[in-house]
Amino acid sequence: MQISMYQASAPRFVHTLNNLSAMLDKAQAHAEAKKIDPAALTTFRLFPDMFPLSRQVQVACDVSKGVVARLAGVAVPKHEDTEQTFAELTARIAKTVAFINTIKPEQIDGTEDKEITLKLGKQEYKFKGMQYLLNFAYPNFYFHATSVYNILRHNGVELGKKDFVGDF
């Protein structure tokens, strides 16, 4: 049995984004229960040269909507990177999930060899669709999603692996 490009992308991103949203809800509840300023969590960095939690969420959203859009051949939605609160970050995730859910399997299936050009800063990268998904998008997406989890765990939010992995 083969897995299609759509099955390997859109539903996987949506699954983890929904888990991130649930983790942010737990973080908000944790901040309220412990009487912690939520900004102490949303601005927290694991190390000074790493992004804060808010930016980690934004990048996870950007990577997931970007790969789905590029594979489907549609414009990547632009989201302003202004979210700072848990409510704003979960709204960002919801907006990203809503976009991904507009993409149909037939828009992505068969894009294994599609030419994808990605410009990051002044550097331009060229990929085939499968290479872009597996070697660039997955590692980036999961790096930022895992960083959100790690920031929250480091700060005492009661999360376990099941919160990250979610239901099967």
In short:
It is built from 8 helices and 2 strands; from the N terminus they run ααααααββαα. It is mainly alpha-helical and 168 residues long.
Keywords:
mainly alpha; Four Helix Bundle (Hemerythrin (Met), subunit A); 62% helix; globular
Topology diagram in text:
Blueprint: H1 5-8, H2 10-34, H3 38-42, H4 53-72, H5 86-100, H6 105-108, E1 115-120, E2 123-128, H7 129-154, H8 161-165
Antiparallel strand pairs: 1-2
Helix pairs in contact: 2-4, 2-5, 2-7, 4-5, 4-7
Report on this structure:
By secondary structure, the chain is mainly α. It has one domain: Four Helix Bundle (Hemerythrin (Met), subunit A). It has helices at residues 5-8, 10-34, 38-42, 53-72, 86-100, 105-108, 129-154, 161-165, and strands at 115-120, 123-128. It has a two-stranded antiparallel ribbon with strand order 1-2. Strand 1 (115-120) and strand 2 form a beta hairpin. Helix 2 (10-34) runs antiparallel to helix 5 (86-100).
Helix tally equals: 8
Q: Helical percent range?
A: 55-70%
> What would you give as the CATH superfamily?
dinb family like domain
Integer tally of domains: 1
Which term fits the overall shape?
A: globular
* Strand composition percent: 5-15%
Strand order of the largest sheet: 1-2
CATH architecture: Up-down Bundle
